[in-house]
Amino acid sequence: MFNKDRWKEILEVLTSNWFRTILTAFGVFWGILILIVLLAAGKGLENGIRSNFGDIATNTMFMWTQGTSIAYKGLPKGRRFTFKLEDVAAIKQKVPDLRFVSPRNQLGGFNGTNNVVRGIKTGAFNVYGDYPDIINQDPMSITSGRFINQLDIEGKRKVAVIGEGVRTSLYDVGEEAIGTYIKIQGVNFMVVGTYRKNSNDGNAEEIQKEIFIPFTSFSQAFNQANNVGWMAITANDNSSITQLKEQIFTVVRENQKIHPQDLRAVGHFDLFEEFNRVLGLFKAMRWIAYFVGVLVLLSGVIGVSNIMLIVVKERTKEIGIRRALGENPWSIKLQIIMESIFLTIMSGMAGISFGALVIYLVNYFLASNGPIEMFANPSVSLGVVLVALIILVVSGLLAGFIPAQSAIKVKPIEALRME
Amino acid sequence: MIEIKDLHKSYKMGSNSLHVLKGINFSVEEGELVAIMGSSGSGKSTLLNILGMLDVLDEGSYTLDGVPIKDLNETKAAQYRNKFLGFVFQSFNLINYKSAMENVALPLYYQKVGRKERQEKALKYLEQVGLREWADHLPSELSGGQKQRVAIARAMAAEPKVLLADEPTGALDSTTSYEVMDLIQKINDAGNTILIVTHEPDIADMCKRIVHLKDGVIVEDKKITQVRASQYV
């Protein structure tokens, strides 16, 4: 297959009619270019959406109480209950593979009355009682000072970390916030840090207006005893929270004397499931890109096949001569198929290279003109390029097969008679 | 060398069939130079095609150099053609994008002869037909007689048992015709078996034996005294 004479012949045939060869090659070039660009665009969109999710630990679910719907062990249905710290301990103990189990409490701020006072300034903010772990589940960047730590929890210190939004509401421009006191529902807390959260969603403004205080301080200051408002639970990276959550519910149901079939008692929001749904969308998009790309490529391949048929027709007499001189029919077939594959791969390579150039240019403009919402860093992986190459070889084979068959179908004597 | 017994061949033309060869018995010894003559439609080209394994016979038997030629698939037929036969056509049938040397080397390529040896042999045969200095020219740069000489060199390159020529001078003027015949006679003198299909009596007279075909049967088969073409050149 790799002999010099055959390659020489392939080049001779393909270069004997440059214009036609290039027009034919363009069909394949265009097909593979569209495939690459579509896949890159899909990837860009995916990257954009992923960056919107930000650094939030996506393997996370949030869980709250809703009241029972089935009577159980002498307790009536419609019973209200609250999570306790014992539930948190039980979950940590009985369910493996959990990375963080963070109990949380909250004082409603928005839509509510002003609950935070500093001097003559007031504001309505969400106030959370949290453990230090929460910064891993709901990431924020600390802009000054520090976040809550374990000593704050143990000492029930009255400290607070405030958002940059809170700071602008309660402080003058340039005023130092660290070390000052704010009054939350009549209790004084010392500000030890400020934070900013990244988001380009609609709630970007709202999430800067939160105040975090140690969970234990929250319980004591606002008379929560060992109540837990809700929980944020994150699984380890190698397991999925969607699979683990039933175990968690079972533990909670046992602890809280809830009927095992009572699905309504515990409410939850599974971020991982939502995230996977979005990922599923990208998978679908990738399939659409492949589908469209391959179809466009197919029309190019049909073009190649068509031209090869014409080439074979033109060369019928030559093929007849070669067979009269004793060329093996298989050798002729191989020749035609190799011509077709060569043409397809060459034009495909050109398409891939040009696609890479287009992607490079788009990235260049994105980099120089700043980010666009929902679109970042379009790219195709090496795997995709390999898949494209395989598609090219297969399609070259297909394109060459029918012409090759027709080339050896004509009897040498008929081929020789052709003028 | 060639042995044909009771050869029949007919072509289907729609519903009725055309009986072209109606029982040919014919044999050729090694070293003969045979002219097959006949008017058009007499079946002479069909006979040559069957001899050249380009066409298959309907009835009868064909033995070439002791090998029975029957039930060949295309691969086998190609192999036999390459090994046993050299073809010379009326319209030269050179491959027009290959140089004279490459054309001559082609049968050797199909025999999987190495590149270097192929070139040497091709040049040797081109030398024999007197076209060594034209080796790098394309067929379009050669005259008719030169083309036919390249074709003869190509036919000889594989060192076949039998050379089959279908109207080798049909497209040439008489001077070049005689040149080509001179070459053929010289090849024959070297001991090669040659069959020529022609309808020109003067060309036939330059052979050693004339077989007349008429309506699919041999009407005359005679040995003659050869007229040397060199006297006209």
Describe what you observe in this structure.
Chain B: Its EC number is 3.6.3.-. Chain B: This is ABC transport system ATP-binding protein. Chain B: It holds the Pfam family ABC_tran. Chain B: Belongs to the ABC transporter superfamily. Macrolide exporter (TC 3.A.1.122) family. The complex is a heterodimer of chains A (419) and B (233). With 419 residues, chain A is α+β, with helices and mostly antiparallel strands. Chain A folds into two domains: 4-54 and 277-417, no CATH class; 60-270, no CATH class. Chain A is built from 13 helices and 14 strands. In chain A, strands 1, 3, 4, 5, 6, 7, 8, 9, 10, 11, 13 and 14 form a twelve-stranded mixed sheet that branches. A two-stranded antiparallel ribbon of chain A has the order 2-12. The longest helix of chain A has 44 residues, at 271-314. The model of chain A has no long low-confidence stretch (mean pLDDT 87). The mean pLDDT of chain B is 89. In chain B, 48% of the residues are buried. A six-stranded mixed sheet of chain B has the order 6-7-8-3-9-10, with helices on both faces. In chain B, strands 2-1-4-5 form a four-stranded antiparallel sheet, covered by helices on one side. Chain B is built from seven helices and ten strands. Chain B has one domain (2-94, 161-231): P-loop containing nucleotide triphosphate hydrolases (Rossmann fold), CATH 3.40.50. Chain B is an alpha/beta fold and 233 residues long. Chains A and B meet through helix 1, helix 10, helix 11 and helix 13 of A and helix 2 and helix 3 of B.
CATH topology of chain B: Rossmann fold
Largest sheet of chain A: 12 strands, mixed
- Total count of strands of chain A: 14
Mean pLDDT of chain A: 87
| Total number of domains of chain B | 1
Q: Can you tell me the CATH superfamily of chain B?
A: P-loop containing nucleotide triphosphate hydrolases
Structural class of chain B comes to: alpha/beta
- Strand composition percent of chain A: 15-25%
Largest interface: A-B, 24 and 28 residues
Give start-end ranges of low-pLDDT stretches of chain B: none
Please state the second-level CATH architecture of chain B: 3-Layer(aba) Sandwich
What is the terminal-to-terminal distance of chain B?
31 Å
GO molecular function, one term (chain B): ATP hydrolysis activity
Organism (chain B): Arenibacter algicola
Pfam family, one (chain B): ABC_tran
Protein name (chain B): ABC transport system ATP-binding protein
